[in-house]
Amino acid sequence: MNITQTFYNNLATKYDKLFLDWQGTTREQAEILDKIFKDNGFDHTAKVLDCACGIGTQAIGISALGYNVTASDISDGELVEAGKRAEENNVEISFKHADFCALADTFIEKFDIIIAMDNALPHMLTSEDLENAVKSIVNQLKVDGIFVASIRDYDSILMDKPSYSPPYIHKNDKGQRVSFQTWEWKDDIYKFIQYIVEDEDELQVSKFECEYRATTREEMTKLLLDCGCSKVEWKFPEETGFYQPIVVARKG
Length: 252
Known about the structure:
Elements: H1 3-11, H2 22-39, E1 47-50, H3 57-64, E2 68-73, H4 76-88, E3 94-97, E4 111-116, H5 127-139, E5 141-150, H6 154-160, E6 168-172, E7 175-186, E8 189-199, E9 203-213, H7 217-226, E10 229-235, H8 237-240, E11 246-251
Parallel strand pairs: 1-2, 1-4, 2-3, 4-5
Antiparallel strand pairs: 5-11, 6-7, 7-8, 8-9, 10-11
């Protein structure tokens, strides 16, 4: 089991603590994705694969809007949590264990839309690994299908290489939750520690470690074009309302 699987397996039951209102977030993000899908010519008949589904934050929301959703992840812990949450939300989603670097090992069918949100692709720590992931994903798209992914604004982050991310403070009727990350850089790779401090009925502190590689928009755009996409565009938070830049790539 690699560091990414271990990280998400351990984080699975705490992942929703990163949000003030996880349930509300699923609806808000589904509306953002729905607009992107429709702006690119798709409706609810589109077959969607969420290839980095986590606990189902996006998959559950877009399924509730009526899309035909399949969801996969490398973390069994998160797949279990996602399955529970899909049942609680009365949506039918086919969940599969799959590595998005080798989607063809799990899926025969091609999809109209594939998504990978919440900075999933920068877990690829080498340019070769990232290329394998992009090739795998684009290969699983139908011709004229789109790939939608969100990635941190590393073009800005690489200028300063900050040692931490600003904290999120979520207050509720029991107290508050505080989540933040510390970052330790080595070239364009950073080891990060995710802390979740729950100061509610009692004080609890959780700590999770993983790694990312800062992936620039230029690198990602070139890879998508080289791997068979005919059009690549970036959408920014001020336009979409999503908290990270989003890339939309159409398979040629």
